[in-house]
Write a structure and sequence with these properties.
Elements (H helix, E strand, L loop, with lengths): L2 E7 L2 E7 L4 E6 L13 E2 L4 H14 L16 H11 L7 E2 H7 L6 H9 L12 E2 L12 H10 L3
Parallel strand pairs: 1-4, 5-6
Antiparallel strand pairs: 1-2, 2-3
């Protein structure tokens, strides 16, 4: 069963998805790979993971939270999950490159594949793929749009 709710962030409305295990998705409205609502989803603003994620997001956007604690349950391949786990370890206000991310995920030399996995990250902001940069330090693609990536990095003082 999937549960959902929405959150109004300073960067636009977000869709939150959860399972019994934790947060499974966090998407900016209109972003690339935005999921289509399925009939079996149930809106539940009181679902524990959704409630916690909304509280933590509110604190993050207010500048009072640097680390998220909500349980995560993203759906992906083992490779994707290893990349997303490595992304989660990039600290607030820090950035890294796709090649370094691949190395940290245990897949040195797989920068392009790590980039593809980053692009499919289903949990924006909390799994902070906005902190991943091109090899030369430039802003590269972000499923939520480069304007949002800039804004999130600015919020973090980058």
């Amino acid at each position: 069963m999937r549960y959902y709710d929405t959150f109004k962030s300073p960067q636009g409305e977000m869709l939150l998805l959860a399972t019994e295990e934790g947060l499974a998705g966090l998407f900016f409205k209109g972003q690339k790979y935005f999921p289509k609502k399925e009939r079996q989803w149930r809106r539940d603003p009181n679902h524990a993971a959704l409630r916690q994620a909304k509280r933590e997001l509110k604190e993050y956007f207010a500048g009072r939270r640097k680390r998220f604690e909500v349980a995560l349950d993203p759906d992906g391949t083992p490779f994707q999950r290893s990349v997303w786990k490595a992304i989660s370890k990039v600290g607030f206000g820090e950035t890294t490159t796709y090649s370094e991310l691949a190395r940290r995920a245990g897949h040195a030399g797989s920068a392009r594949a790590a980039g593809a996995a980053t692009g499919r990250n289903p949990i924006s902001v909390i799994v902070p793929c906005h902190r991943i940069m091109g090899a030369d330090g430039s802003l590269t693609g972000y499923a939520g749009g480069l304007q949002r990536k800039r804004a999130l990095l600015a919020l973090e003082g980058r």
